[in-house]
Amino acid sequence: MIYHVTSAAQWAAAVEQGFYEAPSLATEGFIHSSTIDQVQGVLQ
How many domains does the chain have? Predict the structure, then answer.
């Protein structure tokens, strides 16, 4: 399984809009993702 970490504000906007698009898709051309073992490091 892969995970993607986002902010509460970005997630709330996605719920309101009905879809989520990671900001990195526009700025870097891909969506950052992590394995479960990497998530804790991403959160720090």
Answer: 1
